[in-house]
Here is the input.
Amino acid sequence: MKVIIAEKKFRELLIPTILIAMALNITAIVDASFVATYVSADAQAALQVLEPLVLLVTVFEWFFGLGGQILALNRKAEFDTEGSNHYFTLSIIATIAISLILAIFCLMFPDYVMAILHCRADLAPLAKSYGFYFFISMPISVTLAVLSQYIRVDGQPNLSSALIVVANLINIILNFVFLDLMHMGIEGSSLGLLIGYSVGLICSILYFISPKRTFRFSFGNVPIKKWFKSFAEMLKIGFPGASIGIFDLLLIEIMNVVLEAVMGKPGLNAYNVCTNALLIISILVVGISETLSSIVPVYYTHNDYLNLNHLIKRSLLATTICAIVFIALIWISPDTILMFFSLTDNAAADQIRNALKIFSLSFLPFVLSTLLIFYYEAIERTVVSTIISLISTFLGPLVLTFALYPIIGVDGIWLSFPLGTVLAITVAWIYVKIIERKEKEYSGPFFIKKDLIQKTRNYTIESVNDATRTEMMEHLKTLDLDDSSTETIVKLIDEIFKFNNNDVAMEVLIVDYDDNITINIKDEGKKNIWENISKDLLDNKSIKFTEVLGFNNTEYVIDKS
Here is the structure.
C-alpha cells in the first residue's frame, strides 16, 4: 500500500515544527554569538547563568502547547469537537497566566532570581542587564510558541512557519543593529528578542481571523472542577516533554556550580558551547520528534499500524543521520563551533575542544531517547516517557559525574552525558518488557496491539476505478457484511470522489474488532463534506465526520450484532 497522506502530512508539518523548536533555541545561540563577539566572554558566561530561565520558557511551550495539543488532537480523532476546543482554550489561558506571573516575579525581584541561579557577583550586572527585556519577553515568546503549535496542526503550517521566521529574523537583524551599530551592550540583545517576538505575536492575529481555523475558544457551561481536572490532565500528558526542559534546567544549575568550582570561567564557557551544540542538533531532532508526536495520536487512536510503522522508521532514520553528520563535523573540525562563539583563540580553547568532542558522543543516544520520549507522550504512556527524560537529562549525567570525576577527572564530567543517555534507554527497555508481561495485548517497544495486526487492512484509493478499490471490496466480502452496509461504504466513497470532482486520493483503514468493523477514511480533499453529502449518509448515526491535521477524517462503524 502507498502511504500518501501520512507521508505528505509529515513533510508538511516538519519544517514548521523545526522552526518552532528553533524559536527559543536559535535565539539562545544567536544571542550568545553576538554577545561573545560584541560584548565580552564574561557576557557570554552571564547568558549561561540565565540558561535555566530560557529552558523554563521552553518547558511552558511543551506543557501547554504539546500537552494541550495531544489532548485536543485525540478529541478531534474521536469526533469530539467541543472537547478539542476546551483543551485549546485551557492551554492558551494557562500559558498567558503562568508566564505573566513568572515574568512579573523576575522583574520585581531580579536580585533574588540571581541568587537562585547562583550568579557570581562579577557576572550579576551583565545578567540583570540582559534579563530586564528578556523577562518582559517571556509571556510574549511562550504564547507565540504555544499558539504556533496549534496553528501548525490546524492545517496552516505555512502561517505557523511565517510567525517563527518573522520573530527570529527580526531578532537577528536587531542584534546586529543594537550591538554592532549602536553599541548598546548586552541589553541590546534581549531588546531585539523582545521586539522580534512581539511582532510575531501581533502577526498571529491572522490566525484568529482565518475562516480555515478549526480550533476555537470555548468557555461554555463547563464546571470549574472540570477546568482544574483538564488542567491536571494536560500537565500529566505534557510533563514528559516538558520534563526535558525541567531536568535540563536543574542539571545546568548544578553543573554550572560544579564546573565553576572545578574549572572556573573556562568550565562555564565549555559547558555553554556544549549546551549550544546540543541546542543546534536538538532543533532538528526535537523538530522531527514533535512532528511525529503530532501525527501519532490520530493514527494510534485508530490502530493504523502500517502508517505508524512508516512514520517511526522515517523519523528514526532522519534523526540518526543528523546526529552522525553533526558528530563527524565536531570531531573533524571542532573550531567550526568554537569560532561561532569567538573562542578559538581563548586560553582554554584546547579544554573546550576536548569537552565538545566527548560531549558530542551523547548526540546519537539523544536521538533515540528524544524520539521515544515524544512517541510515548503522544500515546499517553507518560510513565515510561518520564523515566527516559529523568535519567537521560538529569539523574544519569549527574550521578555519573560524581562517580567518574574522582576516577578520570574532568573528562568524566563530559563522558557522563552520553553514558547517562544510554543508561536511560536501557532502563526504559527493561520497563517496557515488564509492561508487556502485564498487558499481554501489547507487543514491542511501540505498544502495538498484536491481536489486531492480522485484523487490519490499509488501502490507498486514488481514483473511482482504482484496482485497489476492487481489492478492498473483495476483502470486505470476507467479513460477511450485509448488503446494506456494503452499499453504504460504496456510496460514501463515491460521494467523496463526487464532492472533489474525482480529484482526490484517500486512505482507507479497515479494522475487524470483536464487536464491530470500523472503516476509517482519510482524504485531503475539499472540507465540510457533511454540508454537501447525501441526506441518508448524513442521518446515519454510524457515520462521523471531522477535520484533523488539515485532512478530512470519516469513520463508519458497523455493529456485528
